[in-house]
């Protein structure tokens, strides 16, 4: 990778946990995301736990984008009747980063086998800012952050900002 190709962009992150069964005290995966980001010197400027509600997810994502240029939504990506994170975020993306979901599922397959088929992880851009929707398990958030998001966020934002 050509280091001159990637701009030295200030990155501010937002973490949104989508769950009807968690709150800020019991949000283990959200806390894991925050710790991984902070350990990578990526400050978290916004954090909320919200229920699986399409309008609420869109509203809080837009609120997070006021202060963050990297938004990570965790949870609500499954196939149950109340999982709606993907349905909330996909229509408001300016551009979809297809490779994010593809790479997430490939890496998941290496770890959990064909169960990765159920993953609806999505990445994209809204107003030149990166947005990622990932499953809420601790393993999923750890892999997504360590193997994909943290290594590529500066590269993504360099291109999204042009």
UniProtKB/TrEMBL annotation:
One Gene Ontology biological process: Mo-molybdopterin cofactor biosynthetic process
Gene3D superfamilies for this protein: MoaB/Mog-like domain
SMART domains in the record: MoCF_biosynth (SM00852)
Residue ranges constituting the MoaB/Mog domain according to the UniProt record: 14-156
A single GO cellular-component term on record: cytosol
Pfam families: MoCF_biosynth
Protein name, entry field: Molybdenum cofactor biosynthesis protein MoaB
